[in-house]
Amino acid sequence: PMVRGLAAILVAAYSGKSPRDILEFPIESIFEGLHLKSFLSPLRSNGLNSMIKRVREYALEKIVNKEGLS
Fold first, then answer.
1. Whole-structure pTM value
2. Any idea what DSSP says for residue 68?
3. 36-58 b/e with 16+ CB inside 10 Å = b?
């Protein structure tokens, strides 16, 4: 349930944003504001960071493909 909850927060935060907006969005500030990191084990914190990284990588891929950059 914890991982699903973290994923739900990411979905809610990124929903409706363009790939560029996702890259510029300070998602870490949301988690800091909620003080969630203090409740996460190192393993869960690493998992959260991996989810954020993957979403940003996907957004960057979309930008690169749209602009025809390599």
1. 0.85
2. T
3. beeebeeeebebbeebbeebbee
Rounded Cα–Cα distance for residues 51 and 13 (Å):
13
For the stretch 18-52, pLDDT in tens is 999 999 999 999 888 988 888 899 999 999 999 99
Coil, strand or helix at 57:
helix
Half-sphere exposure of 37 (CA within 13 A, CB side): 11
Residue 11 corresponds to which tokens in the numbers above? 């979905």
C-alpha 6 chain-centroid distance: 10
Q: What is the DSSP string of 22-47?
A: HHH--HHHHHHHHT-GGGS-HHHHHH
